[in-house]
């Protein structure tokens, strides 16, 4: 997460501040130099593809023969409905059968049977916006230390959206080898940016369109499934990234800055990261000159209407990441944010890092009301996009300050509902929509035969009250059972 570049940076004091904040430690750190150097070296030699460790490949290891969840109410993520009195049978890591409890048929005698009458079962949640290296590296935390927090929150899959490739891949490999405590991890390119990159640690300068094919080829070798365009990328490069990415079957997303939203959409981008990648392009010129305009923007203006219509028409997915805007950027001075009980689940080193950030950001109490209203505008735009038919993704930008791994996704869903989305739409964003953003609809995001057995058992109905998504009893990741309390014990508190 950072600001947008160019004219936005010059125009907007807040964005300058955020830029400073993001680059704060950004300041160059010698040891980080090693990573791009190593990366570059490997790329040069990387003639043959690296072995795949796909997060959806058939996992090895001790799995129960068969598990039956009998008589629960399950969330049909395609239709956005709860369906009562259903039974699910899975074997190994795959769902074999789903149907009404009555007349379900023979239960395999060796199966472990759970009576889940009165319980609610949703597909494993997916966080569409995670960085496994960036902040953690700054806070001296290895990614594996926080991975159990995701599973404990019912998040069985995460999409990295921009990190250095080598450590990212090592963390993903660890996660795949420890499926009992870690989510599935999908990899991304570094942040593809101008020169110099905004984030020197996880950015990658690409200024020549002719250099794009070789870069994309290397990303494929590294196992990335998403390419992330960042704020300094120019259109000529961005367009080529989209073309090459699509040619190689990758998804292309963008935290836009210089490359304007309407251009990126016309060029075929798949997703936009952060509500800013929409918001920043729908402010009329004359409004830009008025103070606090972000807190009072009228979305009935023609720029907004046009962009929203194009996004809907082209089915471009938008990942608002409200969690990072509220918790890190706009309202980190609220006790309800900086003392949120979810934060206490993270290692102390990470929490100290967040506190240090808050001290440096030093938000002025006098601007709090304007900041609150600005955040409400981000929620309002999210709801407008949803109502216009734009596919909404659920992402967080964890572990940016006060955006705790896993649990911030639950906060994101709560913020969607506060914004006016129905709880079922919030759940769809985190399941079937996010699966589509990963091109994994055939494996993830819904409870159907043939899908991976990634499931969350809740003790109350989240479509009645989204807060019930926190009432997690058990989590299955590829058929392996986990319990939040036990999973959290694996997270170091120091
Ligand atoms: Zn991010």
Summarize the structure.
The chain contains 19 helices and 16 strands. By secondary structure, the chain is α/β, with parallel strands linked by helices. The model is unreliable at 2-51 (pLDDT under 50).
Map the helices and strands.
Elements: H1 6-11, H2 13-22, H3 30-45, E1 66-76, E2 81-91, E3 94-100, E4 112-115, E5 120-123, E6 125-130, H4 134-138, H5 147-152, E7 155-160, H6 165-177, E8 184-193, E9 203-205, H7 212-222, E10 224-229, H8 235-247, E11 251-254, H9 261-266, E12 271-273, H10 276-279, H11 285-288, H12 302-313, E13 317-319, H13 322-330, H14 335-338, H15 348-361, H16 368-388, H17 407-419, H18 423-437, E14 455-458, E15 472-477, E16 480-482, H19 484-488
Parallel strand pairs: 1-4, 1-5, 6-7, 7-8, 8-9, 8-10, 10-11, 11-12, 12-13
Antiparallel strand pairs: 1-2, 2-3, 5-14, 14-15, 15-16
Helix pairs in contact: 13-16, 16-17, 17-18
The structure holds zinc ion.
Write out the CATH superfamily name. Metal-dependent hydrolases
For the record, the CATH class is Alpha Beta
**Average pLDDT taken over every residue:** 89
Q: Report the C-alpha radius of gyration, rounded.
A: 22 Å
* Major beta-sheet overview: 8 strands, mixed
Ligand roster: zinc ion
The total beta strand count reads: 16
Return the structural class: alpha/beta
Low-confidence stretches: 2-51
Tell me the CATH architecture.
Alpha-Beta Barrel
Distance between the termini: 26 Å
- Supply the number of structural domains: 1
Beta-strand percent range: 15-25%
Q: What is the share of helical residues?
A: 25-40%
**Overall outline:** globular
Number of helical elements: 19
The CATH topology: TIM Barrel
């Amino acid at each position: 997460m950072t600001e947008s570049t160019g004219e936005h940076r010059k125009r907007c004091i807040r964005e300058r501040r955020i830029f400073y904040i993001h680059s704060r430690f950004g300041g160059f750190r010698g040891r980080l130099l090693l990573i791009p150097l190593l990366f570059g070296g490997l790329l040069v030699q990387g003639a043959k593809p690296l072995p795949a460790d796909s997060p959806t490949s058939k996992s090895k290891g001790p799995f129960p023969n068969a598990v039956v969840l009998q008589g629960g109410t399950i969330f049909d993520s395609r239709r956005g409905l709860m369906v009562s009195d259903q039974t699910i049978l899975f074997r190994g890591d795959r769902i074999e059968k789903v149907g009404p409890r009555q007349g379900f048929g023979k239960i395999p005698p060796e199966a472990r049977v759970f009576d889940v009458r009165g319980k609610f079962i949703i597909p494993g949640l997916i966080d569409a916006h995670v960085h496994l290296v960036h902040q953690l590296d700054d806070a001296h935390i290895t990614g594996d230390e926080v991975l159990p927090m995701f599973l404990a929150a019912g998040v069985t899959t995460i999409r990295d959206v921009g990190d250095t490739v080598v450590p990212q891949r090592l963390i993903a490999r660890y996660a795949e080898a420890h499926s009992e405590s870690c989510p599935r991890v999908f990899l991304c390119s570094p942040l593809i940016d101008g020169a110099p990159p905004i984030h020197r640690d996880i950015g990658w300068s690409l200024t020549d369109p002719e250099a794009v094919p070789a870069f994309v080829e290397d990303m494929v070798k590294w196992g990335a499934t998403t390419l992330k365009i960042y704020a300094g990328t120019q259109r000529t490069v961005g367009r080529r990234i989209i073309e090459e990415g699509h040619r190689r079957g990758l998804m292309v997303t963008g935290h836009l800055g210089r490359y304007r939203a309407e251009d990126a959409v016309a060029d075929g981008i798949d997703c936009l990261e952060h509500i800013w990648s929409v918001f920043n392009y729908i402010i009329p010129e004359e409004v830009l000159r008025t103070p606090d305009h972000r807190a009072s923007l009228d979305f009935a203006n023609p720029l907004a209407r046009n962009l929203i219509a194009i996004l809907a028409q082209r089915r471009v997915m938008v990942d608002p990441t409200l969690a990072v805007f509220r918790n890190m950027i706009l309202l980190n001075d609220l006790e309800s944010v900086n003392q949120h009980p979810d934060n206490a689940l993270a290692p102390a080193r990470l929490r100290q890092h967040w506190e240090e950030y808050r001290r440096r950001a030093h938000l002025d109490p006098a601007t709090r009301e304007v900041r609150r209203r600005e955040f409400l505008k981000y929620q309002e735009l999210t709801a407008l996009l949803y109502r216009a038919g734009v596919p909404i993704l659920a992402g967080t930008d964890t572990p940016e300050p006060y955006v705790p791994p896993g649990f911030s996704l639950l906060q994101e869903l709560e913020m969607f509902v506060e914004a006016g989305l129905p709880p079922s739409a919030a759940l769809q964003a985190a399941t079937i929509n996010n699966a589509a953003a990963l091109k994994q609809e055939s494996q993830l995001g819904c409870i159907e035969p043939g899908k991976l057995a990634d499931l969350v058992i809740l003790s109350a109905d989240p479509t009645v009250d989204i807060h019930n998504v926190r009432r997690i009893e058990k989590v299955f990741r590829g058929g392996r059972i986990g319990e939040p309390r036990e999973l959290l014990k694996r997270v170091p508190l120091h």
